[in-house]
Amino acid sequence: MGLEVxxxxxxxxxxxxxxxxxRGMDIGTAKPSRSEQAGTPHHLxxxxxPHEEYSLAQFIAAADxxxxxxxxxxxxALFVGGTPLYLKGLLRGxxxxxxxxxxxxxxxxxxxxxxxxxxxxxxxxxSGGGTAAPSQRHAAVDPGHRSL
Length: 148
Prior knowledge:
alpha/beta, Rossmann fold, 2 domains, two-stranded antiparallel ribbon, 6 helices
């Protein structure tokens, strides 16, 4: 249906399908065929490798750029398919949530040290009370806990 609407109004399609972004993810998505894409310009399809992460914020920025480029050519942008999350992000923006994890990492580290004698370290975890200390503390709080 999106292809037909785009043809009738002379629009270019911006995909909101979170899986169509990835190259090689052709099965299980509503990704248009090469011939469908050739007849009507499509955006935000096959732009990422499968191992790459992509956030809502990145999608909104990319969709905004694509829509501006389309409008600059005198054409309409038609947003098609995909996830309600992407649509809601475009229409409502991204909520102002809690700060990123780095902002509370020092408090989390201090809490872990107090509770379990563990201080997170780069590349893993070190114990402030020997290797048995966290397990012993856990057993004291949870009598059903068994150490491995």
